[in-house]
Every structure is written in C-alpha cells, then in structure tokens.
Amino acid sequence: MADVDMSGKTVLITGGNSGIGRYTAIGLARMGAKVLFTSRNLRKGDVARAELRETVSKQQIDCMELDLASFRSIEQFARQFIAKYPRLDVLVLNAGSVLDTRQVTKEGFEMTFGANHLGHFFLTQLLRERLEESSARVVVVASDAHRGARAGLNFDDLMFERDYKGWAAYCASKLANILFANELGRRFDGVTAHSLHPGVVRTGFGRDGDLAGPIARAAISLVRPFLIGPEKGAQTSIYVASAPELEGKTGGYYDKCRPGKRSAAAQDDDAAKRLWEVSEALVEQAQAMRKTKS
C-alpha cells in the first residue's frame, strides 16, 4: 500500500485518537490524504492530534469532538464538518464500545446498538450529500464477533431490554455494522461501502478509553498479551480505504487485507433492508421527541 497516492483526498475517521483509528489516520496521512479524526473526549483528541502532527505533517491531521451516543453532538459535528470541508472521499466508521451493564444514549437507545450502529447511521445520513458529491468510499470497522449473533438481529428487541448481555449486544452491533455497509452501497448514489474484521487487536478497547465494566475489562486483560498490535490491526482499514482495486466495488467484507467470510446472517439482504428502515424510523422518532421537548 506504500505506493498508493491519496493526495487531494479528505478522510474522516471516527474514534481516531487511539488504537486502530489512530494508526489508520497515520497510515492514510502518510499516503498524502488530509485526515480528520474524531474523539468523544476533546482533551484526549487534542493530545492525539499534537502527537500525530509530529509523525506526519501538520496540514494533514486534524481532530474534532464527536459523541456518537448523542444526536445533538452528531448534528453539531456534521454542521461543522460540512462548513469546513468541501469534500469527503473516505469515511471510516471506526469507533465502538462494549459494556458489561446496560446503559442508554442521550436519546434512550441501548448504548452498544446506539453508538456502534445508530450513531454512525445518523452521521452518515447527515453527510450523505458530501459523500455522494465525492463518490466516496465508506469503510465500516465491524468484527468477526458478528458470528456470535447466529440467529441474526432480533428486531423485536434490538435494544436488549428483556435480557441484556454485554457480549451478545456487541455481537449484534457488529452484525448491524456489516448489514449497514451492505445496504449503504445500494442506497447512496455513487458511494461504495465495505465492512471488515481488523483482527483481534490489543488496544484500549474495553479499558479506560471505553465504557466496558470490570468483568469485560478483566477478560480482555487476560487475553491482551496474545493479541496483535493496533498498528497491524489498522492495516485492513487502510487497505479497504485506499486500495485502487476496490474502486467501484461495494458490499465486501475484508479480513487481513483480502476478502473474508461472513456468517449467513451477515449476507441477509432482507435483514439489511429492514435494519435500514428501522434505523430511519428510530432516528425520526428521536428527532420528533426532541422537538416536542424543546
């Protein structure tokens, strides 16, 4: 990938202040792209921006605040991005979290589904015009954990209100990521989308940078020494974001920089369509409730 030239392209990465997102930002900036990454904690984002600017040129790296668990934050971010950036060539939906205990977003959605999928869905909708104008590529960082949702998404209980298990909610959110990517390429004019498995990566995920509780943190700590590093984990994200051979192609799933295998549930076009329609309805519902309160 070192020979790929991304000069003149604008890349947006959610959750790029640490882990896979951080190294994805470095890799794409080194190819010449102008990279904007987001952080839900602006202080941590500013620290990461200063550090990354020492690695690549100052002109190629920027950071903005974004909390995917808040529609107000997403709307504010989208307005600021559109005002500042006339292009969006690559959107990398990288941010994600896993939780031991059930929590909810500002709009009342279960946090794992709300941030990992619905927040990214809403953000992508708000940036749709920019994406279509630029014939953009959308990269969705999913996971082979999607296989844990063997029966597919439970549309009768997407918010895990009846029986919350943190890992089950995470697996479902990763399946939602793949279905979203599959459907996006069919919905947006001229925009392509792919999902990927980054590998089992040793990052701050599930630790102090995320919202996971003590049980998940303990489990992750036990296996952490055996995991790959975030720099290696970012390689598939970098590949899918920049590979010339993916130009014009959509709906792929990649692992170790080559086509990967998805579960049967992740190839269900009817479920992808239904998830899209349900997500639209949930966004409209949340918007209507906010207007009523204001």
Automatic annotation (TrEMBL):
It comes from the Bacteria. Its EC number is 1.-.-.-. One of its GO terms (molecular function) is oxidoreductase activity. Keywords: Oxidoreductase. The gene is yciK. It is an enzyme of class 1 (oxidoreductase). The keyword Methyltransferase does not apply. Pfam families: adh_short (PF00106). This is Putative oxidoreductase YciK. InterPro entries: NAD(P)-bd_dom_sf, SDR_fam.
